[in-house]
Amino acid sequence: MTTFEAQDLDPLTVAVLEGGESSERSISLESGAAVRAALAERGHKVIAVDPSEVDLSSFDWSGIDTAFIALHGFFGEDGQVQQILEDAGMPYTGSDPAAARLSFQKSAAKERFFQNYVPTPPYVLIHEGDTANGIMKKARSLGYPLAVKPDSQGSSLGVSVVQSPDELPEALTRCFHLEAFGLLEAGVLGSEWTVGIMDELMLPLIQVVPNRPFFDYQAKYADDTTHYQFEFDIPSDVVNSINQAARNAYDALKLQGVARIDLVLDRFNRPWVLEANSVPGMTSHSLVPKAAARIGISLGELCEQMLKRSLSATPQS
């Protein structure tokens, strides 16, 4: 594991992209506010830029050194804003358009995982136009319990864990309320884990212990009873297998900068990658800042390292 070395960064003018129009707008605003405060405290000039109020394609980027992407969900994590910034020649934090787009679409990411032998639960793609009987047959082919997920949402929005066929219709309604495509994913019973990665640096592994059936939106952002554990009673080789699965997922998607990989560890101590997040949250509840703080990296230092990488990254075509 590469160690983190805090380095002074000359004061920059940073556009923090936050808000937007996705269903994760409120979380994005929280992330943006936390990032702006952390960077301002370290002497940088920060400007909040909300794409719901400003057309980024015609925005005047002169005088701005780099953009910090704190946009979650549609537009922020699906490669769109990254492409606009590339076209404008503006450095930015995080992954390039192709990697962002791939990681945001769960079905595409899972196909890449399969191709690269990254363990991930079996799934089937569904559409709101499919018949109820057809979806029920697909569900039976996977077995219960299973997860119902929108294909392209974050923060566990629209996600349900379905224990029996009777629960499926309500879960589908919740999923299709957000978008037309969804996934039925085989349920893996076990403990939940997350790994933050910044290029070569693996942040400390976190076991997530929600006081709810699973780590859903409420558990992530509103429930103070959710526990985050950095010490756990499992063999070191199992810890290594979780970290290796996360690293393999990061590499398979060709992610860059800071990203977060979510996994589940089954009863046989086998890790399964659930999804990757190319623009992880930076709120007080967010896991990447918690993991960084565990090894003495403040949010300001973390954000500065992300800025430094954005300024040294090779432009993508």
From TrEMBL:
Cofactor(s) needed: Mn(2+); Mg(2+)
UniProt: Mg(2+) 2 binding residues: 275, 277
Any single biological process term in GO: cell wall organization
Residues annotated as transmembrane: none
Pathway(s): Cell wall biogenesis; peptidoglycan biosynthesis
Residues annotated as the enzyme's active site: 24, 155, 286
Keywords: ATP-binding, Cell shape, Cell wall biogenesis/degradation, Cytoplasm, Ligase, Magnesium, Manganese, Metal-binding, Nucleotide-binding, Peptidoglycan synthesis
GO MF assignments: ATP binding; D-alanine-D-alanine ligase activity; metal ion binding
A Pfam match: Dala_Dala_lig_N
Primary site of residence: cytoplasm
Ranges in coiled-coil conformation: none
Boundaries of every ATP-grasp domain copy: 110-308
EC numbers on record: 6.3.2.4
GO CC list: cytoplasm
Binding-site residues, Mg(2+) 1: 262, 275
Root EC class: ligase
Entry's cofactor comment: Binds 2 magnesium or manganese ions per subunit.
Subcellular location: Cytoplasm
Catalytic activity: 2 D-alanine + ATP = D-alanyl-D-alanine + ADP + phosphate + H(+)
Cross-referenced NCBIfam families: D_ala_D_alaTIGR, PRK01372.1
Family of this protein: Belongs to the D-alanine--D-alanine ligase family.
Job description of the protein: Cell wall formation.
Protein name: D-alanine--D-alanine ligase
Originating gene: ddl
